[in-house]
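Look over this one:
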Amino acid sequence: MTYPIRPIDESEWPAFNRVLQEAFGWTLHPALLERNKARTEFDRTLAAFDGDQMAGVTSIFSFTMTVPGGQLPVAGVTAVAVLPSHRRRGVLSSLMRRQLTDIRDRGEPVAALYASESVIYGRYGYGRASTNLPFRIDTHRSAFVPNAPQDPSLRLRVAQPAEVRAELEELFASVVTQRPGRYVRSREIWDEIFADEEPDQNGHGPLRSILAEDDQGVRGYALFRIKASWDDNDLPAGTLYLGEIEAADPAAYALLWRSVLDRDLVTRVETYGRPADDPLLALLADHRQVRARWSDELWVRLVEVDRALSARSYSAPVDAVIEVEDDVCPWNAGRWRLTADLSGAECKPVDDEPDVTLPVASLGSAYLGDGLLTEQLHAGLLREHTAGTVRRLATAMSWSPKPWTGLVF
């Protein structure tokens, strides 16, 4: 069967959410539904129909995202769902193909998403592009190394988050370009970050903030919640749930972490996720105290290979003919010569013999600077025709700091 696909309008919002609720098995609080609606770009929200019934949906947030060496317009794919009654009928494939065509027509060379299940989106050319590191630390074992940075001009300020929103937004805007995967936040996104109703607290207490500043202004901030608790011996056993910690320099970062870890009556700090190369791992005298688990974070898809590869920077020179396999976006399939050095890059179609043949998802996984090209080669998933090409390509596409988004969309 074929299922007609079209953008929805605001009047179809309830039906759109019914599909999401059935597919994900959730029931969102009315306040969360209203916030989601405020962020929705209805002209970029697609539904597949079986007669009058919505059978599947997907949407996009329009982002400006940091990539190695700069920023790009990126399609943030979200709210992908199919009714349980319509699984395995081609609904998702039809939606993904239509969506990618629309993204290309809009001129966005890259798409990105968070995956509810890691086995889904590789079929559509997405590659795992960043790593998330949720962890917890027992505060009594959180000493820093002796040479941790300090700045006597810095001081801490406790503040109500809503009262310092403008200062926090300004600080974030100054650091958003420092790490690939971060994206510019709209007013609606900040509204969600500062939201503090019962479903936002989730039993973890009200939103709190602390700022690191000097006479020139704010140099960092932390947003968190605290769940107070005492053990059977009436000793404090509170947990601090860290939402965000951002800083413009190492001294401010270290001071904020020390404030979080030294909080009175708190014995454990938990994060919803941090980058795999979080500087905290170097600051801790005993990094084994970080109880962490690895998880995939952002998945990236090159919608237009030539524009995407030409738009980012590279860490080392590379000159290679890449044969791309892409049966979802056939305009990408073929041979491309990537020529790049520290001053810039060019990617153009050629008829030359390839140095390497790979699926487009492999380029997506490497695009933000933390790919697994050499691992995929050793696993037999890539075909190297010129010895050393994959190593050179992987080195050129690598980036520091590692990519991380830090805020689900």
Observations:
- Residues 308-397 form a domain with the Nonspecific Lipid-transfer Protein; Chain A fold (CATH 3.30.1050.10).
- The mean pLDDT is 97.
- The chain is about 25% helix and 30% strand.
